[in-house]
Amino acid sequence: MYPVERVLFYQLNHSTPEYFNSVILPELKHSLSHTLLHYLPLAGNLWWPSNSPKPIITFTPNDRVSITVAESNSNFSLVSGNEIREAPQLHSLVLQLMVTDDIASIIALQITFFPSQGFCIGITAHLTVLDGKSSTMFIKSWAYLCKQLASLQNLSLPPELTPFYDRSVIKDPSRLDLLFLNQWMNFMSSGNRRMLTIIKNTGDVPDDLVSTCLIKARDGDSERVVFWGFAADGRSRLDPPIPGNYFGNCVGGPMAVTKARNFMDGNGFSFAVELVSDMLKELEKGILTNAKNLLIKIFNLSKETGKQTISVAGSPRFGVYGVDFGWEKPKKVDILAIDG
Predict the structure, then answer these.
(1) Beta bridge partners of 71
(2) Please, what sign has the CA dihedral across residues 148, 149, 150, 154?
(3) Long-range contact pairs involving 250-253 (C-beta distance under 8 Å, separation at least 24)
(4) CA distance linking residue 74 with residue 78, whole number of Å
């Protein structure tokens, strides 16, 4: 799996080093410690013991979340703007997860201060453990408690932000978990196939028009395979549905495989719209419909060379632009894992 890297930019034009170090940073760290009391698994690790058929999440009272505090002299307006930016400039704002063959950290945080301009919070999360909705719930919880901390109010979380951990609500009679792990081990080329190695996401991120333009811009072989998919929240789509505050990775979705030539003529945009429409209709049949065949298909396609992958990251339903730690809402939120 690949990490999800997200950066939230907060503009504070009069933020001096003294104010950042005496007010902003202590409140962020203090509220984070309170937040992790509700999200203890994030302080632990993903571990694949040699005697276990699948990885497990383990944490102890001595575990912690890796957090780095940095300072940048970059132009905040440019880094957080909507113009084209160099990827390395953004990647300096997030930490890499600690990963070995059998153990991986779950989350890493970086707070970067831009003197007299603002600050940003970079969050790297392991997609195996938490999906976009769960990672957003954690960020919102952190922001909620940070604002509560300032007013010395109750530091409990509202129900919608309180994580639900009971895995027994997931009914998986066909054991898709073991199927996925078998496909993963077959996919890994290393002699040690029981690996938690993180793979970089190299897909393009589209809407219908952008997808068509991306495929045309690449040009090349019109017969190349185009692998197109998106993820949807499975919580309300399972039978029976599970709580919306379920913490973990609970996504699924349809996938389409077609040829690049279908996008390259004058009807490329119409083809893309029809393709997405058909995928949405497939999703309405159920999040786990044909899931077994879909998993096998995805891993087989991942081995092909010359293909072009089109995928979607994030969702406006996450409401990340409403994440207010007490210093206004973010000016910009970027997802870095899609720059490949």
Answers:
(1) 113
(2) positive
(3) 250/131, 250/133, 250/170, 251/131, 251/132, 252/287, 252/288, 252/291, 253/229, 253/279, 253/283, 253/287
(4) 8
3-class state of residue 4 by DSSP: strand
Alpha-carbon separation of residue 170 from 184, 240, 268, 295 (angstroms): 21, 9, 39, 18
Residue count of the chain, please give it.
340
Say what the alpha-carbon torsion angle 20, 21, 25, 27 is, to the nearest 10 degrees. Answer: -100
Report helix, strand or coil for 270: helix
Structure-token match 């897909």, residue found: 203
Say if pTM beats, i.e. exceeds, 0.70.
Answer: yes
Which residue is it, tokens 């997802």?
335
For residue 215, CA distances in Å to 225, 259, 272, 277 come to 11, 10, 11, 19
**What's the CA gap between 274 and 82, in Å, rounded?**
29
Walk along the chain (340 residues) and give the pLDDT tens digit of each residue: 568 899 999 999 988 999 999 999 999 999 999 999 999 999 999 998 888 888 899 988 788 898 999 999 999 999 999 887 877 788 999 999 988 888 899 999 999 999 999 999 999 999 889 999 999 999 999 999 999 986 666 789 999 999 999 999 988 877 888 887 777 777 765 545 566 665 554 444 444 555 566 665 666 677 788 887 888 899 999 989 999 999 999 988 888 888 888 887 778 888 888 888 888 888 888 888 778 787 777 777 777 767 777 777 778 889 999 999 999 999 999 988 665 4
CB 70 within 8 A of CB 112: yes
Q: Which amino acid is at 238?
A: L
